[in-house]
């Protein structure tokens, strides 16, 4: 059975483009251009994966992710945006999205990303990997849960390779581990990103680290 | 209230203008002393630029003002210019009570008095104002005869003063406020014009170029380049003004090479470092590596990754192109000179890894202290 995909984007042209790119591989079950319609339809259709734009009126992608996850925690979200602003990206992941890719992504890579999110894994673009490394770098962990506040050396290795432009397969080969292990590391980073209480995460972007 | 003197004086004293106004009214009781003072301040303040927002009244200033005022009253009493106890207390209490109640920051005093969500100090102030008003009226009631003995003329002057204050004070304040908002609107329009000019020079020009171009590759490159430039402008990717940063220099180098060689370059940076004579060679070496990748790798895109760690700076230029066998590669000037030598001279290191069919990665490292 083909993966059911739902699209949310307030730009009709972009919506049409993505539909054309994905319709051969997936079952596009619907699309919406505003937050309220999206939440209502996704609750009714319960697709496997929702591609959601970050910037939209009335709360944007975050409102869609939070609104749906409250009632349907199994729906998986992949954020898709032109925004490279770290705050937006991190906020989207913390709201519950399983990954973030920019709209300039190649069609083939987008298909891979949807499949990966559908399989329950996280999708980190090079830029997101960079943001996460930056956000977790340097500062001391908070007292609540030190394990959540820091990345392991291995996780950092994986993120660095992703940031350098390597695909998961190549990352696995470079580190002599399986693709599954790479996916596990990335999912673990995603979990930390979503659960950590580090207050730096919320405002780290305003003062990027300067050595 | 006539020439904005009270407001101006309030600005310089750092207290609410209604307090100063109340002071003037009370002083006017005493043979027009307040009127004279008002005129004096008006002359003194003619060249003052009333542009600065007043600071909120601080404890020190309030105490200072109170002490000064009391001192002045005692002085008047001593030199025999004191009209009568009842009159002065009444006018003082009513004036300052009104001052406590009317503040430009509190649009509706009554509402904030009744609304329990008001901040503590605001409520205290309201209650104090109401108390003073009631007290003033009580003293007035108890001393009606006394006051009329003191002279109906003075009473008339005081009442007229209070009337003018109540009637025109807010109007004058609003007038100056309007001037302020007009100025803000003008600044806003200038900003808008500046933005329009910028968009015209950048985005509109690029869109025109894209329309005239019939090569899809060239079109997407123009769009990409413009996107990066617009994003830099919108989100201000140069966080520290006046300080050049490694990330900025690398981003600019990547954008330049991207445009010149028509290959997209993805740039990711973690942390940052100041760009100076010592770190500049890395940017040069990285640029050389990007140009090599763009020219020879046949890769669809190039990745540029920069990380500033605590002890060293690292730059990776990675492509998934055809790669080369280092032993058999034609030894041009590029790799040995521009990259290796440049990094060694800077006290750093360059490592080049390439496998035929797998792509190339150039790793530049420089220790920092």
The tally of helices of chain B reads 13
| Approximate helicity band of chain B | 55-70%
Low-confidence regions of chain B = 43-58, 109-113
Name the shape of chain B in a single word.
Answer: elongated
- Main sheet: strand order of chain A: 2-1-3-4-5-6
| Share of residues in strands of chain B | 5-15%
Q: Please identify the oligomeric state.
A: heterodimer
- Please work out how many helical segments of chain A DSSP would assign: 11
Major sheet summary line of chain A: 6 strands, parallel
Quote the distance from N terminus to C terminus of chain B.
63 Å
Q: Fraction of residues of chain A in helices?
A: 40-55%
User: What class do helices, strands and sheet pairing of chain A give?
Assistant: alpha/beta
Uncertain runs of chain A are: none
Measured by residues with Cβ under 8 Å of the partner chain's Cβ, the largest interface is: A-B, 22 and 31 residues
Q: What's the alpha carbon Rg of chain B, rounded to whole Å?
A: 37 Å
Question: What does the average pLDDT of chain A come to?
Answer: 85
Largest sheet of chain B: 5 strands, mixed
Structure notes:
The complex is a heterodimer of chains A (211) and B (369). In chain A, strand 5, helix 5 and strand 6 (123-124) form a beta-alpha-beta unit. Chain A contains 11 helices and 6 strands. Chain A is an alpha/beta fold. Chain A is globular and about 45 Å long. Chain B contains 13 helices and 5 strands. Chain B has helices spanning 5-13, 17-28, 33-44, 59-78, 85-101, 109-114, 120-142, 144-150, 152-212, 216-235, 246-261, 280-296, 334-345; strands spanning 265-270, 302-308, 312-319, 349-355, 359-367. Chain B has a 5-stranded mixed beta sheet with strand order 1-2-3-5-4. The longest helix of chain B has 61 residues, at 152-212. Chain A binds chain B through residues 82, 84-85, 104, 126-127, 129-130, 133-134, 137-138, 160, 163-166, 207-211, and chain B through 224, 227, 231, 235, 239-240, 245, 247, 264, 266, 268-274, 301-303, 305, 307-310, 313, 316, 318, 320, 361, 368.
């Amino acid at each position: 059975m083909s993966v059911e995909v739902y699209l949310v984007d307030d730009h009709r042209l972009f919506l049409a483009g993505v539909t054309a790119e994905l319709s051969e591989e997936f079952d596009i079950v619907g699309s919406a251009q505003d937050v309220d319609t999206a939440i209502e339809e996704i609750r009714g259709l319960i697709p496997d994966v929702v591609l959601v734009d970050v910037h939209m009126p009335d709360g944007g992608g975050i409102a869609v992710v939070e609104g749906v996850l409250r009632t349907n925690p199994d729906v998986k979200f992949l954020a898709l945006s032109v925004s490279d602003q770290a705050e937006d990206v991190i906020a989207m992941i913390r709201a519950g999205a399983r990954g973030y890719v920019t709209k300039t992504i190649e069609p083939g890579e987008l298909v891979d990303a949807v499949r990966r999110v559908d399989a329950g894994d996280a999708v980190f673009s090079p830029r997101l990997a960079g943001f996460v490394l930056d956000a977790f770098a340097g500062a001391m962990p908070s007292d609540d849960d030190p394990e959540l506040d820091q990345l392991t050396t291995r996780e950092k290795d994986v993120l660095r390779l992703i940031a350098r432009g390597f695909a998961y397969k190549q990352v696995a080969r470079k580190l002599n581990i399986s693709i599954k292990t790479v996916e596990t590391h990335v999912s673990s980073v995603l979990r930390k990103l979503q659960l950590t209480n580090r207050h730096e995460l919320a405002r780290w972007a305003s003062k990027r680290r300067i050595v | 209230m006539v020439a904005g003197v009270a407001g101006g004086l309030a600005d310089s004293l750092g207290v609410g203008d209604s307090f100063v106004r109340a002071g003037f009214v009370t002083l006017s009781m005493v043979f027009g002393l307040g009127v004279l003072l008002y005129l004096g301040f008006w002359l003194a303040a003619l060249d003052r630029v009333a542009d600065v927002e007043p600071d909120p009244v601080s404890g020190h200033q309030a105490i200072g003002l109170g002490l000064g005022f009391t001192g002045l009253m005692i002085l008047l009493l001593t030199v025999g210019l004191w009209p009568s106890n009842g009159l002065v207390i009444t006018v003082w209490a009513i004036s300052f009570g009104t001052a406590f109640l009317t503040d430009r920051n509190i649009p509706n005093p009554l509402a904030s008095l009744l609304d329990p969500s008001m901040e503590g100090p605001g409520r205290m102030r309201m209650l104090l104002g109401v108390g003073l008003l009631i007290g003033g009226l009580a003293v007035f009631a108890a001393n009606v005869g006394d006051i009329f003995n003191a002279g109906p003329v003075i009473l008339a002057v005081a009442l007229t003063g209070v009337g003018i204050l109540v009637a025109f004070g807010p109007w004058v304040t609003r007038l100056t406020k309007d001037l302020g908002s007009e100025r803000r609107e003008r600044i806003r329009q200038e900003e808008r014009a500046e933005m329009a000019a910028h968009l015209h020079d950048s985005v509109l020009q690029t869109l025109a170029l894209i329309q005239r171009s019939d090569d899809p590759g060239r079109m997407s490159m123009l769009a990409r380049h413009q996107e990066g430039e617009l994003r830099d402008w919108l989100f201000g990717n140069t966080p520290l003004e006046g300080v050049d940063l490694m990330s900025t220099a690398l981003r600019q180098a990547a954008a330049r090479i991207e445009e010149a060689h028509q290959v997209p370059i993805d740039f990711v940076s973690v942390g940052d470092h100041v760009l100076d004579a010592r770190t500049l060679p890395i940017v040069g070496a990285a640029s050389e590596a990007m140009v090599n990748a763009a020219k020879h790798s046949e890769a669809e895109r190039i990745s540029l990754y920069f990380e500033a760690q605590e002890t060293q700076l690292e730059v990776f230029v990675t492509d998934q192109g055809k790669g080369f066998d280092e032993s058999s590669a034609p030894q041009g000037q590029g790799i040995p000179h521009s990259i290796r030598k440049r990094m060694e001279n800077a006290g750093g290191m360059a490592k080049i890894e390439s496998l035929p069919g797998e792509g190339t990665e150039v790793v530049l490292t420089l220790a920092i202290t």
